[in-house]
Amino acid sequence: MATQTAPLWVKAGHEVVVYTVGNHPEKISELNGVAIRHIFNPEKRLGLSGQFIYDYLCILDARTKNFDVILQLGYTTSGIWSFLWPKHKTVT
């Protein structure tokens, strides 16, 4: 979903940041005007529990950026961290 929608938001004049796993084979920091943040993901070592840690790290990083809106996709494993989401900025 982010692949299709993020460039549209950029064309509309918004600054867009998309989070991806740190071990993604493509180490690019920008694509079609979309900033890409690579965050450590221990899933290969820890299995599914590593996904919880990745989601936690993404949420912590997003909180430091003072984004106007946070669109949380794939929130199955990040649901336990919902108390960390800025309530007035998060769309799920």
Describe the structure.
This protein is α/β, with parallel strands linked by helices. Helix content is 34%, strand content 18%. Strands 1-3-2 form a three-stranded mixed sheet. A hairpin with a 2-residue loop joins strand 2 (30-31) and strand 3 (34-39). It is globular. It starts with a helix and ends with a strand. The mean pLDDT is 87.
Short description:
The protein is α/β, with parallel strands linked by helices. It has helices at 2-11, 43-46, 48-64, and strands spanning 17-21, 30-31, 34-39, 70-71, 90-91. The strands form two sheets. A three-stranded mixed beta sheet has the order 1-3-2. A two-stranded parallel ribbon has the order 4-5.
Topology (elements, then pairings):
Elements: H1 2-11, E1 17-21, E2 30-31, E3 34-39, H2 43-46, H3 48-64, E4 70-71, E5 90-91
Low-confidence stretches: none
The Cα radius of gyration reads: 13 Å
Please tell me the total number of domains. 1
> Which structural class fits the helix and strand makeup?
alpha/beta
Compressed to H and E, one letter per element, the order equals HEEEHHEE
State the helix count: 3
Q: How many β-strand runs?
A: 5
Biggest sheet statistics? 3 strands, mixed
> Can you list the strand order of the major beta sheet?
1-3-2
Overall form = globular
Estimate the mean pLDDT confidence: 87
The share of residues in helices is 25-40%
Write a concise keyword list for the protein shown above.
34% helix, 3-stranded mixed sheet, two-stranded parallel ribbon, 3 helices, alpha/beta
